[in-house]
Write a structure and sequence with these properties.
160 residues; 7 strands; Aminopeptidase; alpha+beta
C-alpha cells in the first residue's frame, strides 16, 4: 500500500475495464452516454495495436480504481555512429477528482520514472495540464519547448 491506502501497479489484461472506465471519466465521457456503449471493446482493440510499447499503471484502493497513467516508448531509428536509444512519453495521467491532492499522482509518476530509469530511457517527455505543472516540476521535469502554444516538459535520464 502506498499513499492514503493506495496501491500503484502495472495494469494487466484483467484491468482493461477499469482503465477504460477511468479514461472515460477523464475525458468527461459521462456527458456523452451514447458514446460509452462499446467503448471498453474499442479501447481494448486500440490498446492491442500499441503492443509492448505502451505500459499502463493503475492506482487502486481496496474499494475502487482511483487513477491511471501510461508510458509510451519511442525508439530512435538507428544510424551510423549513433547508439540506438529509447525515450518515453508520459500521458493519460488521471486521478479521480475526489482522490486528488493525496499523493496518488506522485505515486503514479514515481512508478513511471522508475520504469523509465530501469529501461534506460534517455528522457521522459509530457504535455501537462496547467494544474499538473507543479507535480511534474517536483519530479524533475523542466520546460522543453513545444509548438503552437503546447507546453512540453522533459526529464533527462538521471545519469544523462
Amino acid at each position: 500500500m502506498g499513499s492514503d491506502g493506495v496501491t500503484v501497479r502495472q495494469a494487466g489484461p484483467g484491468d482493461l475495464g477499469a482503465i477504460a472506465t477511468l479514461r472515460a471519466l477523464w475525458d468527461d465521457a459521462a456527458d456523452h452516454p451514447d458514446d460509452l456503449e462499446g467503448f471498453a471493446d474499442h479501447f481494448a482493440q486500440w490498446l492491442a495495436t500499441e503492443g509492448d510499447r505502451r505500459t499502463i499503471w493503475l492506482a487502486t484502493t481496496d474499494a475502487e480504481d482511483v487513477g491511471m497513467a501510461s508510458l509510451f516508448e519511442y525508439r530512435r531509428m538507428p544510424r551510423p555512429g549513433r547508439l540506438d536509444s529509447r525515450w518515453g512519453y508520459v500521458g493519460n495521467m488521471f486521478v479521480r477528482p475526489e482522490h486528488r491532492n493525496r499523493g496518488i499522482g506522485s505515486a503514479l509518476l514515481a512508478a513511471i520514472t522508475a520504469a523509465a530509469d530501469a529501461r534506460g530511457y534517455v528522457r521522459l517527455v509530457l504535455s501537462p495540464t496547467a494544474r499538473a505543472i507543479p507535480l511534474y516540476h517536483r519530479a524533475g521535469f523542466v520546460p522543453a519547448g513545444g509548438q503552437d502554444g503546447e507546453l512540453l516538459l522533459a526529464r533527462p535520464a538521471p545519469n544523462g
